Amino acid sequence: MELTQTLKAFIEEGQDWERKNTSVKGVSIIRLPATKNRAASLAIDINPIGENGLPMKKKGVMIMNAAELAAFRAAFTNEKVDGLITALEEVLPERKTAGKSSKMDVLQI
User: Fold this and answer.
1) ∠ CA 91-73-68 to the nearest 5 degrees?
2) Which of 2, 47, 85, 88 is deepest in the core (most CB within 10 A)?
3) Phi/psi at 102 (5° precision)
4) How many other C-beta atoms are found inside a 10 Å radius of the C-beta of residue 20?
């Protein structure tokens, strides 16, 4: 099945807040429920996978259109953000991570 057909089927038949993993680790698709003002929709959720095989954050970054993606790309590639994270790492104590990995259904993209 073609990617757009798979996404159309997911938005029509998926459950509210259902998540489909993709073949890109840390990238999934979430079906957002309909509201009074808009129909059900889909969003990309980006939450990188850590060394332990689990998502790095409890919630990822949800992106719904190309403009949002471009804005995040610009922020992530800004050299000042690199300096800021270096300063944060010097100030904050190191965090420990733990957990189990899990396998799920994967959407090939």
Assistant:
1) 115
2) 47
3) -140, 150
4) 18
Exposure on the CB side of residue 37, measured as CA atoms within 13 A: 0
Phi and psi at 9, nearest 5°, equal: -65, -40
Q: List residues bridging with 22 in a β-sheet.
A: 107
Instruction: In whole angstroms, give the CA distance from residue 4 to residue 1.
Output: 8
AA identity, residue 43:
A
Q: What is the pLDDT of residue 97?
A: 53
Q: Give the percent of the chain with pLDDT over 70.
A: 91
Q: Cα(38)–Cα(32) distance, rounded to whole angstroms?
A: 10
Four-CA torsion 78, 84, 89, 90, nearest 10 degrees = 140
AA identity, residue 74? A
d(CA 70, CA 63): 10
How many residues does the structure list for the chain? 109
Please tell me the pTM assigned to this model.
0.76
Residue in the structure block whose two tokens are 């698709």: 29
Among 78, 56, 74, which Cα is nearest to 66's? 74
